[in-house]
Structures
1.
Amino acid sequence: TQLLEQSPQFLSIQEGENLTVYCNSSSVFSSLQWYRQEPGEGPVLLVTVVTGGEVKKLKRLTFQFGDARKDSSLHITAAQPGDTGLYLCAGASNQFYFGTGTSLTVIP
Amino acid sequence: DSGVTQTPKHLITATGQRVTLRCSPRSGDLSVYWYQQSLDQGLQFLIQYYNGEERAKGNILERFSAQQFPDLHSELNLSSLELGDSALYFCASSAGRPGNIQYFGAGTRLSVL
């Protein structure tokens, strides 16, 4: 059973466009993390959100944790080819659960 | 560089064989996690060790086992390998408390032929 569902599963956009990736669950998490993974590499942590309603910004990336701590979103403004990769959300409760992943391709 | 070291980077073997994957955690991290990543299953949690003791178990097959040694490095043993075991195997380490940030190694790509 996949606790964390991400959407969309695949996303291909032109450079300069904006996009939003969603991470949804019916479970409550004490914290939620977003990772980015490039081919042949392990996931790299982007951000951790711990408070319901929390918003964190990392340059062109904006992360939001839902009020009920069950869902999260990642918004990228003016996407660049370097943003290409697999984006994974992960929720922490008694253990770590990873989302299904969103594969993003930004076309120059 | 995450500070987590995994060896080997690639492994090619035949069905029915046994292999051992090795992981050295970041300096100071007490917890090690093992994950399997395949195209159709995504990133699946296998098992966690904390300071030498098993802490949590996920979707780990009985043919698979792991251990963490006194120097905190960990090994994942995969036996009676099947074609479907071909995947990327990642190790991650953290300080060990629930919700602590996990830092991932570069992974071992296992191909079972």
Note: The first strand of chain B starts at residue 5 and ends at 7.
2.
Amino acid sequence: GAGVSQSPRYKVAKRGQDVALRCDPISGHVSLFWYQQALGQGPEFLTYFQNEAQLDKSGLPSDRFFAERPEGSVSTLKIQRTQQEDSAVYLCASSPPRRVGYEQYFGPGTRLTVT
Amino acid sequence: QKEVEQDPGPLSVPEGAIVSLNCTYSNSAFQYFMWYRQYSRKGPELLMYTYSSGNKEDGRFTAQVDKSSKYISLFIRDSQPSDSATYLCAMRQGGSEKLVFGKGTKLTVNP
């Protein structure tokens, strides 16, 4: 079946612009995660949803970052007034209900470059 | 000090070699341990998932966890050029959903 999809795959933004990154999780997966991966680093947790509820946003680096999942499926990560340090790959992952398994399935990521 | 430490390499080995990758961690609350493989320009994919101390084998891959030493390893036997990728260790506390990753080790297997 289809995996996690993300769009756009690549985004170039001028400093100060707002961007919106989209994640389509695997159908039936209740949990959805966003991670940020800087060049040469491992992914770092940003936020987590269970259905439409955002249960943990402790990793969001500033109030310029905002995530939503209004209907419990597609999620959008929005970054306002982008800065150069926001340049990274943004990964989305989803996982099935606990009774099924624990694995987080990752999408290919959106590579954001802020110029 | 980061919660999870992983030598970034790079590591270069000939085809057929045994590869050893490892991570150390400082948070004794970590209970679940994973190894992910990430090819260039792709998302991470899960290779191994372990809970208890000891060994877990899957084909050419063996994951080892030593909770007393806060040390985990991944061994790859008979390495192949297709194993060339970045290998990430990841950990999770019981009751938490978020994964904490190491920096990743870049592996190249030369034909």
Note: The CA atoms of residues 57 and 63 of chain B lie 6 Å apart.
